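Working notes for the structural subgroup meeting. M.R. asked for a predicted model of this chain before we commit to crystallization trials. I am recording the input and output together here so anyone reviewing the notebook later can reproduce the run.

Input as submitted:
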Amino acid sequence: MSKPDILVSLFSFNEGEKLKNLVTKFPVEPNYDILFVDDGSTDGSYEFLKENGFNIIRHENNIGIGYGIREAIQYGRKNGYKIIVIMAANDKMQPDEIDRLVQPIVNENYDYVQGSRYLKGGNSPNLPLFRQIMITLFTKIVNLFSDYKGTDVTCGFRAYKLSLFNDSRLNIDQTWLDKYEIEFYIHYHVLAGNYKITEAPVSMIYPKEKRNYSKIRPFIGWWSMIRPWLYLTLKIRR
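Returned structure, recorded in token form:
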């Protein structure tokens, strides 16, 4: 695909030096466009991105990752992109692996490619034990809801064919999806709609000190990820 077909969207909230380190890893002339969504950073991240000429959607206040993903998808559709890649701007996901997510869509017509740190070729150094247990448990729970058996449903490194969002059953404009819900809401509907989904091996590199490695809050964050499966299965939401 040509450069205008692929949009790589990155989501940032007070990522500081992690963000600055990440941007040095992008190729000088990538075969995709880059969009940052800054969710109300107060640490100079937005100013850094602006000074370096990046395309940015800016929130004055912290709203939530789901809100930002919705905006990036809307931006991609409005501007004629065919594929959107979702990744965090916290330097855990590696730009040189973007092609792993894109190629199954381009070459094999998949609709959704989920990154997995557990496939051969994937990696997750310094992953805290509790996080590993919760990822495995949550993935097993999600697999109970479907015939598709994934290995890593929580990895936030993903790629979607933007034509997915032409499906009226997939209503991402609902405000209850403003936090972590939206990613799992999309996952559910891709499976329910019999779209083509696969996984690709990726790296998730956690800091060695195992502090401040995630902005997912215990209990609240995990509930935000679980409830789309409950709400949609029980027909509480659509």
